[in-house]
Write a structure and sequence with these properties.
By secondary structure, the chain is an alpha+beta fold. It is 48% helix and 17% strand. The chain is elongated, with a radius of gyration of 36 Å.
Length: 892
């Protein structure tokens, strides 16, 4: 049994010299012996993560029934069976099965977050043991092993580096750093964040160039990936706003139905009816009042939202998440790859007191400062760039690839240039050097081209190339130009060259001197097209957009300002700042801070939970391993489908197939449309249910005959009502839906104003039905004919009232009947089916109905129109204010 996951050490590995790390691990450059490896493998366990238990199918199926409304339907099924209403019971059972089946299919995928993390551990590793090199399974690595890493390999365990040669590692999936990190052997401070631990290489990171050796200091659960896996395991998926609203709504409906049935029973007994008879009446009333179709219609509406979102590049993994985006008040977005293109791009080139922009640099002339600056960037370069299908594909360091693409865009054929300037030798980049240089020969001359940090290149130069040739080098001017570019978040590289007659022998390799300074190139990972507009649309919808990135503060600030997340004077909070805050300080800080840089997975989680503690509904986007804990704990986690890791996708509720924040903004729109349709469906079902309850209770109070038989109530609820309520789920979104503020977290499925409208509509329909029922009974003395009138009046009320439900703010007369053809067809079909049932002998017998005279139809039609008059007046009186006071609850 494994008892330890990490070797004990007095200081963090990144903060001690490599020699001290070797002593602590009782190892050295020659590696461990086989006996020690076996002992440590038993002590620390294999270098793998513990698998998460699979979510069983039965567990997912049972989860579909965990809702108060479903509990009511289950109880109703049992009761209807006990009283012999097997048709009702069969229908309710069918609704429950259909609802569970749709939800089960959508959520069948088991949780695979931790298993996805495991796939980032390299299967093989090169190690030195007993002085010899071996190829071993990475699962067999133990603390103290000596591991080789080189370009193209994935780091198999957490390493304390003790030897590096031009080693650069892409840690973006762990840290969010947008460019590869230069690694060395020097210790850093104890408080250095993960992205700044340059003496370490972490599991899952990819070596982009160079090579190195390191001592294994952590394996399996003890690695940084292991720590993230543990956070993911412990992070509970939060209940979505829709699930919370459904729970509250289901409890309210249960109480209302229970109270109605109890009142009906008490009234009947008080007026002399038998206890047995009134028990059956009360149960019948409860069954009639339950909106049996609501759960399945909710599921179908959400499924339609899933389909619409898929067309807009957003794949929903869990049904309730469809609506969550519509309730979102804050979006915390990763920077690299989501807001930006995850592709370094040269934005500005400075030469001889002039700034050139790559997209508007003018004609390129050989020998000019601009041309020579670009040429130096091409020649001191090991990357490759080639055009395919109108886009540039690259290999190698992203920074060097950006220099090649800039030269190509401005007219330099980089392949021809490299062939024309034959390479003699080079000085590769090293972090300690801060520059690289390439020695090239052409036409009997030797050119030395160099690029690197501006202050380093300036130290090699005596003159600067101007439009008229070499001029005096003004260090202050160049330093100011570099500082100005850096202040805009650009990564700045300086270029220089020297030309001398070619020597017959290979020149002595030494640091170049007496060079000509050429210019500066500033690059940045540019924003994605449309991101600025999408962020503006989200802000117009009342949604704050935050940046949560592992990148440097300056870069984060520049990008955030550029795309409109924050103003120029906005503050940036670092991960170290968050670590030093108390919970209350953090809750206050997240209220007005929009940029978070150098943040760890724990920091992202801190921000999400602090926002949720303030009552915000939080969406988080991410693509890396470091994003998984926040993705799982957010109200909705949004992962990237193209560049993202399996880890992020499995932790998320939604996946963007195009990795584009613009698609997220489109999904917010669809989420709001989906909730609007859920609200319309609920309003329609509950208001017609209220009408039926009022009719039955009123007849008991008045001691009239019951106006509906059980079969008629079933017909009313399922056939005429059911067709229209399903069609409402297809209602297209209303204009201006993104101009509304998000709905308050505390607001239910129906807003307070819609509850007013529900009661008014229910009372109107109940009064109209009761009046016509009594009129027909008095005039004809036929209870069958009176019940037929009552039933048909309710059918007509439903047909007219569904027009009221199509918009919560607009008049029914402003909505074209053909804008939702499904509803038009469903309404016409429901009426046609009912009319046919009145004249078809078998349905006449089952429903106990009779054909009606023309004058009865005229009376019913006129009374049916009353519901549209009442609702239109209510919409007029309770129209949302111009200031948007009621915009969170349209129509209220």
């Amino acid at each position: 049994m494994q008892t330890e996951i990490l070797p004990r050490v007095s200081h963090p590995w990144h903060a001690i010299p490599a020699e001290e790390a070797a002593r602590e691990l009782e190892t050295g450059p020659h590696g461990l012996s086989a006996a020690i490896v076996d002992e440590r493998l038993r002590r620390y366990g294999a270098n793998r993560l513990e698998e998460a238990p699979s979510v069983r199918g039965l567990e997912i199926l049972l989860h579909q029934f965990a809702s108060p409304l479903i509990y009511i339907l289950l109880a109703a099924t049992i009761v209807t069976i006990l009283i012999g209403e097997f048709v009702d019971a069969g229908f309710i059972a069918a609704v429950l099965i259909l609802n569970a089946a749709i939800g089960f299919v959508q959520e069948r995928r088991a949780e695979e977050s931790v298993r996805a993390l495991m796939r980032l551990i390299s299967p093989q590793a090169r190690v030195i043991r007993e002085g010899r090199e071996w190829q071993v399974s990475s699962a067999d690595l133990v603390p103290g092993d000596v591991v080789f890493v080189e370009s193209g390999t994935r780091v198999p365990a957490d390493l304390r580096l003790f030897s590096t040669t031009a080693l650069e590692v892409d840690e973006s999936l762990l840290t969010g750093e947008s460019v590869p990190v230069n690694k060395n052997v020097l210790p850093v401070t104890e408080r250095s964040g993960l992205a700044d631990r340059t003496s370490m290489a972490f599991t899952g990171a990819v070596v982009t160039s160079g090579r190195g050796r390191g001592y294994v200091v952590a394996t399996g659960a003890g690695t940084e990936i292991g720590a993230i896996a543990e956070i993911v395991r412990q992070s509970e998926r939060v209940e979505t706003p829709l699930q919370r609203r459904m729970s509250r709504f289901g409890r309210a409906i249960a109480v209302a139905i229970g109270a109605s049935a109890t009142v009906a029973f008490a009234l009947g007994v008080a007026t002399g009816e038998s206890t047995d008879h009134m028990f059956l009446v009360a149960v019948g009333l409860a069954v009639a009042a339950i909106p049996e179709a609501l759960p399945v219609v909710f599921t179908i509406t959400l499924a339609l939202g899933v389909r619409r979102m898929a067309r807009r590049n957003a794949i929903i993994r869990r049904l309730p998440a469809v609506e969550t985006l519509g309730s979102t008040t804050v979006i915390g977005s990763d920077k690299t790859g989501t807001l930006t293109q995850n592709r370094m791009t040269v934005r500005e080139i400075w030469t001889a007191n002039r700034t050139h922009f790559v997209d508007n640099a003018g004609p390129l002339i050989s020998g000019t400062p601009l041309y020579e600056t670009l040429l130096a960037g091409v020649l001191t370069n090991e990357a490759e760039a080639y055009e395919t299908a109108g886009e540039y594909a690259t290999r190698g360091d992203p920074t060097e690839a950006a220099l090649l693409i800039a030269a190509e865009l401005l007219g330099i054929d980089t392949e021809d240039v490299r062939e024309a300037y034959q390479q003699v030798t080079d000085i590769p980049f090293e972090p300690e050097r801060q520059y690289s240089a390439s020695f090239r020969s052409r036409d009997g001359q030797l050119m030395i081209a160099a690029k690197g940090a501006p202050e380093r290149i300036l130290g090699m130069c005596r003159t600067m190339l101007g439009d008229e040739g070499a001029t005096r080098l003004d260090h202050d001017v160049v330093h100011q130009a570099a500082a100005d570019m850096a202040s805009r978040g650009l990564r700045v590289l300086a270029m220089a060259h020297s030309l001398t007659p070619k020597a017959p022998d290979l020149p002595e390799i030494s640091e170049p001197r007496n060079m000509v300074f050429l210019g500066l190139q500033g690059m940045l990972d540019p924003p994605r097209p449309g991101v600025k507009e999408a962020i503006a649309a989200c802000q117009g919808a009342g949604i704050r957009v935050l940046m949560l990135t592992g990148d440097h503060a300056g870069t984060a600030h520049a990008v955030a300002v550029d795309i409109g997340i924050a103003a120029h004077d906005a503050k940036v909070l670092l991960g170290t700042d968050l670590d030093a805050m108390t919970e209350s300080e953090l809750r206050d800080a997240v209220g007005d801070t929009s940029i978070y840089a150098r943040v760890s997975p724990e920091n992202k989680l801190q921000v999400v939970r602090a926002l949720q503690a303030r009552g915000e509904v939080v969406a988080v986007t991410g693509d890396g391993v470091n994003d998984a804990p926040a993705l799982k704990s957010a109200d909705i986690g949004v992962a990237m489908g193209k560049s993202g890791t399996d880890v992020a996708r499995e932790a998320a509720d939604m996946v963007l197939t195009d990795d584009n924040f613009v698609s997220l903004q489109a999904a917010v729109n669809e989420g709001r449309v989906t909730f609007d349709n859920l609200r319309k469906v609920t309003f329609f079902l509950i208001s017609t249910g209220v009408a039926a309850v009022i009719v039955i209770l009123s007849t008991l109070v008045l001691q009239w005959p019951l106006p509906f038989l059980p079969a008629q109530l079933l017909w009313l609820n399922l056939v005429t009502n059911g067709l229209q309520v399903l069609a409402l789920a297809f209602e297209p979104g209303e204009k201006g839906i993104l101009q509304r503020p998000p709905r308050p977290r505390s607001e239910g499925i129906l807003s307070p104003v819609l509850w007013e409208r529900t009661v008014l509509a229910g009372i109107t329909m109940a009064i109209g039905t009761l009046l016509l029922f009594r009129w027909e009974l008095n005039q004809t003395g036929s209870i069958e004919e009176a019940r037929t009138v009552a039933l048909t009046t309710m059918v007509l009320f439903q047909m007219i009232h569904v027009g009221n439900c199509r918009s919560q703010t607009l008049s029914a007369f402003q909505k074209s009947p053909l804008s939702n053809p499904f509803l038009f067809i469903a309404t016409a079909t429901a009426l046609t089916v009912h009319v046919c049932a009145l004249y078809f002998p078998p349905t006449q017998y089952v429903l106990r109905v009779e054909p009606l005279a023309p004058d009865a139809w005229i009376r019913m039609a006129l009374v049916g129109l009353s519901v549209i008059v009442v609702v239109e007046v209510h919409k007029l009186l309770r129209r949302p204010s111009a200031t948007g006071k009621h915009a969170s609850s349209p129509g209220g």
